[in-house]
Amino acid sequence: MKYRFTLLHSLYHWTLKWAAHPHASRMLFFISFIESSVFLIPPDVLMIPMIIAEPKKWFRFALITTVASVLGGIAGYYIGYWLWETAGRAVIAFYGLSDAMALVQMKYEANAFAAIFTAALTPIPYKVFTISAGLFHISLVTLIFASITGRGLRFFAVAWLVGKFGEPVKEFIETYFDMLTIAAAMLLIGGFIVVRWLV
């Protein structure tokens, strides 16, 4: 747990540093893409400070994040479908959910759309569900539709709020930056705990 928290803390700061980079939009796309299959830090970490810096571009940044995340989810799906033994299994093992895969499959059998939508919308690790969707041959159409709905709702809602209340949010982040870093890491860890509890 301590190692994972330290890793999260380091990756969080590394991701955040890209917000002021000239190619921040490209990095936002990249982070959003890989987070859906392997990366630890959610793209919100990069998207929020970018919107604070340029609030009128909130829609553009939300669109980039959503599109890249859904495409990354499709990549995660094919990792599970074609590359389970060589890559997918290792990713799932890293998140400590190897023993829970049979029960994740039961969630899909009960309602695949609801399972993916919930993971796409909440701090529950979305990548676990994209990879397992491919492993268990869930309909790709279901994955895409649930991902667009869940990821779109999440990122556009966050982007709109930050775009509308950017300056107060900026002041809040600057005042409580260290606390927010810890909270973000704990929230992410909490997502893994929720998955284990649900399954």
Write up this protein.
Residues 42-160 form the VTT domain. This is VTT domain-containing protein. The protein has one domain (2-15, 23-198). 81% of the residues lie in helices and 0% in strands. It contains ten helices and no strands. Helix 1 packs across helix 10 (177-198), helix 3 packs parallel to helix 8 and helix 4 runs parallel beside helix 7 (126-135). The longest helix has 25 residues, at 58-82. The radius of gyration is 16 Å and the shape is elongated.
Question: What brief labels describe this structure?
Answer:
single chain; 199 residues; mainly alpha; 0% strand; elongated; transmembrane helix
Question: Topology, pairings included?
Answer:
Blueprint (H helix, E strand, L loop, with lengths): L1 H16 L6 H12 L8 H10 L4 H25 L1 H11 L6 H21 L4 H10 L4 H25 L1 H10 L1 H22 L1
